[in-house]
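Side project, low priority. Logging it here so it doesn't get lost.
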Amino acid sequence: MMERRDFIKSCGYACIGGTALITILNSCRSTQTVNGLIMDSNIVINISDFEINNNKKNKQIREFIIVQNDALKFPICVYRINETTFSALYLECTHQGAELQVFGDKLHCPAHGAEFDNHGKVMSGPAETNLRSFPIKIENKQIKISLK
């Protein structure tokens, strides 16, 4: 027979584990990772990468996408601020160089807990320097992220 204390402990772990799993699955569902093509000094992605579905009536737009390329040490997170404004941020923490995790409109450093907003500004330390950001141009339904 299970003691009351063990039963409560087991139920608590199950609730915490279930909640964590749901949170992880929801965050994975909405994250889009694309391979950017490097052309000249730009990394190029399509604006359509932000579309969740192509149904004209129910078109949903992602808040951000993660852009990778083997030439980059860290990925770039591109936020869609509005239809014509985007923010491209290098996912390297300015504190000690760990790769940042994206949680909606916040970027979090798993190493020491620094947080940044979707424009790369420090929200909480230990980081004191804003993230590296990249200029963006939109041409022919493509986003060109300048790597200069």
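Brief comment: Confidence is low (pLDDT under 50) at residues 25-29.
Revisit when time allows.
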